[in-house]
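JOB MANIFEST
job_type = single_chain_structure
chain_count = 1
residues = 238
[input]
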Amino acid sequence: MEITTFIIIIIIASILQTSTGFGFSILATPFLLLLFEPVEAIQINLILSLIISVALMRKIRRDIDYGILRRFVGGSVVGLPIGITVFLLMEINSLKMGISLIIIALTLMLIFKFRINQNKKRDILAGGLSGSLTTSIGMPGPPLLLYFSGTETQKEKLRGTTLAFYLFIYLISLIIQVIFAGTNKTVWVSSLWAIPLVFVGLYLGQLLFKRINQNSFRVLTYIILLFTGIYLLIESFN
């Protein structure tokens, strides 16, 4: 049953990552926490997310806003050490609850049409928040999704810029996680088994991305976030 659950999580999360630019970590991390220890779940997520970013770079490089990308990277340098400190001090139920509340709050802000004007300082702040969430819970997506949605960024630019940023942030976060939290055989064996599943999801996700319009994209985002946040919140109490 756990193997079947693992396969479903990886394929669906890979499809959403490819088609939306953010879905893998937001969907995979909460459910991987139900199957693995926190260190294992987060590191498996980081490894697979890094593979996805590498695989998609050729297809999305024309959609990248390099100015925003540089500011995201600069801000993340401050956020990365903060995130790993939080991770090392937090116990599992608090970790689950924190992730769920972040996801739910993000979704509500999106639904009620939170809006923000983009500028260079806010780019840096978004990058910093994303960096801290990557090393702490393996989820860089929420701050970037909220920021880009708040500025009404088109889905191509959102996907391209976030995936390019993930290429950097996942690699650095994985290195930091391994150094400060350690790693084990389960992380690397599970990641190896999941790689073929990831590429199945990538293929299906590309097909979906070509067929999904902006409104459908937005509705899909809300459904994913609300379901994941509420489910994990319930699990944190159990």
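[summary]
Residues 2-237 form one domain.
The radius of gyration is 16 Å.
exit_status = 0
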